[in-house]
Write a structure and sequence with these properties.
Layout (H helix, E strand, L loop, with lengths): L2 E7 L7 H16 L5 E9 L13 E7 L2 H11 L18 E9 L15 E9 L5 H4 L2 H6 L6 E12 L12 E7 L2 H14 L3 H4 E10 L4 E2 L7 H16 L8
Antiparallel strand pairs: 1-3, 1-4, 2-3, 2-8, 2-9, 4-6, 5-7, 5-8, 6-7
Helix pairs in contact: 1-7
Length: about 250
């Protein structure tokens, strides 16, 4: 993996959340995995266990693992203008989402080693904006990140740096230049351990502005190499695309 694309989004209303989730899982991510540069994809919902001062603007995230960010974004920009290549559900709030791109910075593990999220395995995202006189790399060294592998609730912690934003995002903030990605084995204990770490290191609030949030899996990780070899995925993908083209109402009951 040489990059991650992170999409943070919401349904247009809480009453259409199931509709959006069905479209996203059954159609949209399958289309995205056909784009050049794709490795795998997984979707998450916001956990009920959140760190202090959590950033709760977005209810759902999608994490795309990539081996070629330039190829992926180029294809995405072209397909995004073609409703046949990339049909959109009206349940997706196109007026408010963030899609941003991140590349590895300080890594002590391969992301894929812990990427098969299931059950209570979850993900902690902490976006960092520098406001002090030290860079994230000076604080979140390999030595510090390795310690998180032994902290309750954590499997590992990575530091990534920004590779830019999709400029169709409504409220992207380029001042957040780095992101910590914690791969957790427990949302609750991950939350407690992160809060404890922040409390024990109060100077961090003078060095960085931080947006922290925990998400839990709602879709098993799907590899691009396998995604359309699955007959169930193929059937859902075909049906969903036809519904979108016909602009029919659909969801759990339709």
């Amino acid at each position: 993996m040489n990059a991650i694309t992170l999409c943070m989004s919401n349904p247009v209303s809480e009453f259409r959340a199931d509709e959006m989730n069905n479209w996203y899982t059954s159609e949209h991510v399958l289309s995205c995995m056909q784009m050049e540069g794709s490795i795998a994809v997984q979707r998450f919902k916001r956990s009920k266990f959140q760190p202090k001062n959590a950033y709760l603007d977005y209810s759902v995230i999608t994490v795309y693992e990539l081996f070629d960010l330039d190829a992926w974004t180029s294809t995405c920009n072209v397909w995004g203008l073609d409703s046949h290549k990339m049909p959109m559900s009206t349940s997706f709030d196109i007026e408010k989402f963030i899609e941003d791109y991140w590349t590895p910075d300080v890594m002590v593990d391969d992301f894929a080693d812990f990427a098969d999220f299931e059950g209570d395995k979850s993900i902690l995202l902490v976006k960092l904006g520098v406001i002090g006189n030290k860079s994230p790399e000076q604080i979140f060294t390999k030595e510090l990140l390795r310690k998180f592998r032994k902290i309750e609730g954590f499997k590992t912690l990575h530091l990534l740096k920004t590779a830019g934003y999709n400029m169709s995002s409504m409220d992207a903030d380029p001042s957040y230049t780095h992101m910590l990605v914690g791969q957790l084995n427990s949302s609750y204990f991950g939350k407690v351990s992160w809060d404890t770490f922040i409390d024990e290191n109060p100077d961090l609030s003078n060095l960085f502005k931080m947006r922290a949030v925990i998400y839990e899996p709602v879709m098993a990780r799907k590899k691009a190499s396998e995604i359309l070899n699955d007959p169930v995925s193929q059937a859902l993908y075909t049906i969903t695309r036809q519904l979108l083209r016909n602009q029919l109402d659909w969801g759990d009951e339709g």
